[in-house]
Specification:
The protein is an alpha/beta fold. The chain has 15 helices and 13 strands. It has a five-stranded parallel β-sheet with strand order 6-11-12-5-13. Helix 9 packs parallel to helix 10.
């Protein structure tokens, strides 16, 4: 397993993962650190600490974005997308199985120290829901929406807010890939006017709504807002279920790097995308779940803050998500470290003679403090 911030999966990563197994590989007994059970919904405590492959078809449709940059490099290097089954992922999926979806949505907040595996725990839940035909609304890195914006334009809908058309259009393209089968079935419940001449009429497919934001980039931010509104209204226990997955949710209540022409700072609440995402995270709807992570990696204004929710969310964010279910991700247990160590040897990520000895392994445990991200970085040159 490996960790970091979320970026789009490159085509090369998908091709590497899609390489078919040979007949010899298919017949070979599984190593002790692997399981052939690829469905997160069927994982149990006996799978804890074992690695499973994300099938190539899941990688293409469920994760057009959302996997970490470090994990993408592993896919290329190892020739497969392999994830360890860990206790926080099992805990989170058990909550999703037991939830009453006729009640207001439950918010889950995944937290932990840097590099411990929060993003892949989130992806475990995303894959579970996707395999059960949920609609997936995945924000792979909320910080991309509050810093280094390609273009910032005044909103045509509300002059007090600012649009990010390129970020919105890119997100809509990935949303379409993940949810393609459902976009023709769901219909708009109201009319949306984009310009004096362009509108999406009531009763049109959500696919048409999404295409409006992709084809007419200037309206993309407002299309995202309309899409959020439609999904909240139409996802019910007896129809469709919706997973809202946000990596780095603390971005919604922190500072931004954006400035106006007068050099004053743009607040997150003034950004159309952030404004609508905050509304989506409220528990005023049913028929789904909200799963989020907190991050310090790349987080603006987080210097000196601990990894705990009350600090990273700040009071405003904490109050907005309260009540929520905390899910803590910690460093590897002894069993998990041993499994990852054996996996790296199997993939020839660890080749140095000393690293293959018991003494070398103990040194790696000490130097990494059993932190998944640190362990991965240490093994790179070995």
């Amino acid at each position: 397993a490996s960790h970091g911030r979320a970026f789009h999966v490159s085509p090369g990563a998908r091709e590497a993962c899609s390489a078919p197994q040979t007949d010899t590989e298919a017949r070979r007994p599984l190593p002790v650190f692997r399981t052939d059970q690829a469905d997160p919904g069927l994982h149990t405590d006996r799978h804890a600490g074992l690695h499973y492959r994300i099938p190539p078809e899941d990688l293409k449709t469920t994760f057009p974005h959302g996997l970490t940059r470090r994990f993408q490099r592993q896919i290329k290097t190892f020739g497969e997308a392999c994830v360890m089954v860990r206790e926080p992922g099992l805990e989170l999926v058990s909550y999703l199985k037991m939830a009453n979806y006729s009640h207001p949505v439950v918010r889950y907040v995944i937290y932990g120290e840097k590099g411990c595996g929060k993003t892949l725990t989130l992806c475990h839940a995303v894959q579970y829901c996707a395999r059960r035909d949920w609609l997936i609304l995945h924000i792979p890195d909320a910080y991309l929406w509050v810093k280094h914006c390609s273009e910032l334009l005044p909103s045509t809908y509300n002059p007090a807010r600012l649009d990010q058309p390129l970020e919105a259009s890119t997100w809509l393209k990935n949303f379409r890939i993940t949810n393609e089968p459902y976009l023709a079935q769901l219909k708009t419940q109201q009319r949306y006017a984009w310009t004096k001449r362009e509108a999406t009429e009531e009763g049109r497919s959500l696919g048409e709504l999404v295409d409006q934001g992709i084809a007419r980039v200037k309206s993309a931010s407002d299309v995202v807002g309309a899409l959020f509104k439609e999904l909240k209204a139409q996802c019910r226990p007896d129809t469709y279920r919706l997973l809202v997955a946000v990596d780095g949710v603390n971005a919604l209540w922190g500072p931004t790097t954006m400035k106006r022409e007068d050099k004053s700072e743009v607040l997150p609440s003034e950004l159309t995308l952030i404004h609508n995402l905050r509304k989506l995270l409220s528990n005023d709807w049913a028929g789904g779940a909200v799963v989020t992570t907190l991050t310090q990696t790349g987080a603006l204004g987080s210097t000196g803050l601990s990894h705990h929710p009350h600090q990273l969310l700040r009071k405003t964010g904490f109050d907005h998500l309260d009540p929520f279910v905390p899910v803590q991700v910690e460093n590897y247990t002894q069993k998990e470290f041993e499994s990852c160590y054996q996996y790296y040897i199997d993939r020839k990520w660890l080749q140095h003679d000393k690293a293959l000895t018991e003494e070398g392994k103990q040194e790696l445990i000490f130097l990494s403090n059993s932190n998944p991200g640190t362990f991965d970085r240490l093994c790179g040159p070995l």
